[in-house]
Amino acid sequence: MRIYMLSFLLIFVTTQFLSAQLYEKAVPMSEGSNNALTLSLPRISVKDAEKVWQQYMDDFYDSKAKWNRKTKEWIITDADIVALGRGKTIDMYTTFDKSGDGVKVNLWVDLDGEFLTSREYPDRYTDAEKLMMRYALEVAKASVQEELDKEEKELDRMETDMRKLKNANERYHRDIERAKDAIKKAEEDIVKNVREQEDTLKKIELQKELLDQIRKKLNEL
Questions:
Q1: DSSP assignment, residue 43?
Q2: What pTM, to 2 d.p., does this model score?
Q3: Is 2 a residue whose pLDDT tops 60?
Q4: Residues forming beta bridges with residue 115, ordered by sequence position
């Protein structure tokens, strides 16, 4: 078994490393137990790993990975990958299995009826390793992009909250100004009310004096 550690620098809010492990072993698949390149990817879902694989094979090798519901494998038939086929087309089988918080990816390369091994095809196997390494890098990039998108959405949410807070602050200031105007008017109304009370009190006193005079006249009759 040959083991390679692949390290990719990821930039999130802080810098951290995502390590992937690649090794060779015989793994059961739809065509029997055959030699596979097995890649262990941490901190990714099966769905995301499969999505990146499809995009990667399409973008880099112009090959379409199709899902075989019966065998639970992603299959690429008649792929024209020169580094692996050396002038002939090849078939590729891939499975993605959940492993802890990550995914274990198995890749089988069918070289016209014979599966790729490091012993029989050392040069091609090295190129297959490079293919998987590039795939692991694409997974790392996708993870960073996902984190970037998430943080951008969080920033948008924060900026929206900030706009709401600013609008509320302006509204509170307007409320204060309206309250100040209301207080000022109430204070003016109080002053006016006091004057009116004083005037009314004087009128009451005068009215009482007038009543006393009328009562006095009544008593003199």
A1: S
A2: 0.68
A3: no
A4: 110
